[in-house]
Amino acid sequence: MNRLIGFLVVVFLVCGILPVYGPLYLNRRSFDRPAADTRRARVTERDGAYGAVSIPSVSFSSTPSSSSSAPIVRQNPGFPPAHNPLDDEEMVFIPFGYFLMGNESGYPYERPVHEVYVSGFWMDRHEVTNRRFRRFVDSTRYVTDAERRGSSEAPLRNPVDFLLSPHLDVAGSTPVEGVYWQRPNSPTDSIACRQDSPVTQVSWNDAQAFCRWAGKRLPTEAEWEKAARGGLSAKKYPWGDAAPDGRECFGFPITTRPRTVARYPPNGFGLYDMAGNVREWCSDWFERGYDRSRNRDPKGPSVMNQYSEHVVRGGDYYSSRKELLCGSRGFGRQDGCYFARGFRCVLSGR
Known about the structure:
single chain, alpha+beta
């Protein structure tokens, strides 16, 4: 009798309960898989890997890079550089993810080192050149801030002048009449043979005007530093910790003007001249230190400082090695023009 009862219980379990609860168990397992995938996606996002990255499309056509032989280490090979026909520039995609921003060994306003998340975006492969800026001016008849004022900051002729000049407004420069983007170093200078060098003597206002014309924008300084690091973590320079000699254009009086863009090897994202050559405008207002509460796509302070200064990044051909560090920061007045300051553009990834 007991055996009969036991047999009936087994039959009831098999025929009654499993048909009802078995599918629920299987469904629960299927719901677990997306959760695991989500966890994996979060890890991928933090590491900046490509397995879970969806590269967004851009409004202009994507074409193979004209410099495909360059050693692009971390750029996703499935998404070649995008080409913007309006300003004739290639852009590379910078993947989303976290990185360590800042420089503990630098000035107080470069600290602290803190973790920041940046969404994916597209960035110009190199700085805006004289050729591209001329196309913008010819198309819009734009007049730069330096042209309106009739003068701008020109380089001092030698290191002795730097020490003796009583008119220093910017380190290594002095105000000179007749200096603007087509005559960046002196009233008799010419860019006729330097069309593929970075445009200089452009203010933040001028850079913004170019970006609007090209359908782009200036990078935030968080975007700029993430791109400059090229996927490397906690390294001094875009290429690592090795000394910059022979890798970038810097070091007055040995170097007296910007070099042609893309003359030196790119970083891991395929970007050129992220240290040296010319400093680059960022969109952020400058503040003396970082607000660590803004750690996801930070855009800097919401109001200008008392001097109307914006962030500049990257060092220039007048710079010391210290100013070439990825975490090095600078600043300039919104309408200020300088012989060793230019810019490059970005596009949001969405």
